[in-house]
Amino acid sequence: MKRCIAGLLLLSLASMASAHTSFTTLFIDRKNQGDGTCVRTPSDGETATNPIHPITSEDMVCGRDGIQAVSFICPANKGSLLTFEWRQWPDAQAPGSIDPGHLGPCAVYIKKVDDMFTESAAGDGWFKIWEDGYNPVTKKWCVDRLVENNGLLSVNLPRGLPSGYYIVRPEIVALHWAVHRDDPQYFLGCAQIFLNSDVQGPLDVPQEHLTSIPGYVDLSTPGLKYDIYQNDLPPYPIPGPKVYIPKVDKEKAAEIPTRDPMLQTAGVIPEDCVLKSANWCAKAVPPYSTEDECWTGVRGCFAQSEECRPSAQTVGQANCDRWSNYCEKLNKLCEDGEFIGPIAFTKKEIEAPVPGEIPAMWNDVFEQNE
């Protein structure tokens, strides 16, 4: 069925502020890792949901401010289900994932790195492990399915990936202005994971499946010059390289017992965190029993609070506020002469409600690539 251009144009300006989207939250095997945790989110909440311009810029790699790694790397297992939550409001102040009129494809790219904190995400080494475009049978785009699933998009990690550190990059392309304004809109972000697997050794990806970001698309890319408002849509060419699913090498697998498994040593979320907010972690205030020690503890508490806020500007300050309120209580006790402490911090991490059931991966590219 033809989509109504006139209706789109009438609504476009009114909905512009809330029509866009941002990848905010990673789930691994249906477990919420925490808003912003292990995710390279933009620092400016006012522009966090805006599309990337131009599409040849370095922001195409991991979004605005995404070149810099974040502190935490989330562990995943062989074949884990990764789910990416997309929000119109990054701090979940209101429901919604993306404007239903922002029709287009989705894809997930991945890049293996030796060192998450020194190796650049930009450049070569990226390959696509999943994609979904337009289904002529159901007449639905990937964005249709994303909206139906409350902004939750899932993909299984290929079981042939070897252990190691990976940057995972989901992307959405909105094509509503691709032809009429020469403006395909990219929304994307990056998550940091460490893959625990019995598959060891280097990752070998055929050259024809590798790509460089930025540089893998421009305004002349066929899939970005596609008119979604045609009566009879022709087959849609999804931008980027073809999907590549690494297979388990059975001969190499037979050698695994003789090798020491690779273990995560960087980006581990500390076990002694008493509260986490995005990629910040609060440590317990040390015990004190004198006035000087009491005030030292209060200063240390507030110093941690100041570090919290820059780490969670996009996804919200609820946990930073929770920690700051605790520091205020310690401050009041010191003022009142209660110098033996501190009182225990007993609050839990605040997480935005999950918008719906975590979906399985749709458009099973694993079967298609057997």
Automatic annotation (TrEMBL):
Residues 1-19 form the signal peptide. It is found in: Secreted. Pfam families: AA9. The keyword Ion transport does not apply. One of its GO terms (cellular component) is extracellular region. It catalyses: [(1->4)-beta-D-glucosyl]n+m + reduced acceptor + O2 = 4-dehydro-beta-D-glucosyl-[(1->4)-beta-D-glucosyl]n-1 + [(1->4)-beta-D-glucosyl]m + acceptor + H2O. It comes from the Eukaryota. GO terms for biological process: cellulose catabolic process. Its EC number is 1.14.99.56. Its cofactor is Cu(2+). Keywords: Carbohydrate metabolism, Cellulose degradation, Disulfide bond, Polysaccharide degradation, Secreted, Signal. Residues 20-231 form the Auxiliary Activity family 9 catalytic domain. InterPro entries: AA9, AA9_LPMO. Its main location: secreted. The keyword rRNA-binding does not apply. Belongs to the polysaccharide monooxygenase AA9 family. This is lytic cellulose monooxygenase (C4-dehydrogenating). It comes from Trichoderma lentiforme.
